[in-house]
Amino acid sequence: MMTNAPATASRRRYRARKAAGVCTQCGSVPPEPGRPMCVPCRKTANEASRRRQRKMRVLAIVLGWCVQCLQRERMRGLKWCAVCAEAHTERQRTKREKNREAGRCARCAGPVPCEPCRSRNQAYRAKKRAQQHGVAA
User: Fold this and answer.
1) 82-111 b/e with 16+ CB inside 10 Å = b?
2) pLDDT, tens digit, 9 for 90 and up, residues 69-115
């Protein structure tokens, strides 16, 4: 198996800088506490990552891929594949349960009773009832 020489050198540089207690990106200043990079390098890296992600999401939409994993074909009418949609549903269910157990609004984690969420739910239910009865809302 061949190794990628530049990646190996990059990895060595990363490890050496981390061990020396300097930013793993620029190598000139101490990193932010608990992080491998200094604040300016982290902001630059985050911006670059966001641009790359945005570009990949657009490409995924055009090609009909899941915008979450970028690996599988998305389900008809949705932006996710079945696997990612199920994982999202499970994460949301867990989040709602934790909020309820903590005595907070299940939707926004605000104090209970949460009037904005209650109003939104009432409007949604009224719209659904109107659709069932063939009345435009």
Assistant:
1) eebbeeeeeeeeeeeeebeeeebbbbeeee
2) 999 999 998 899 999 999 999 999 999 999 999 999 888 888 887 88
User: Two tokens at 20?
Assistant: 């020396």
Residue 5 pLDDT:
67
CA–CA gap between residue 31 and residue 37 (Å, rounded): 5
Backbone angles phi, psi at 51, to 5 degrees: -60, -45
> What is the C-alpha separation between 70 and 61, in angstroms, rounded?
9
Helix (H, G, I), strand (E, B) or coil at 75: coil
What's the one-letter identity of residue 128? K
Residue with tokens 């020396």: 20
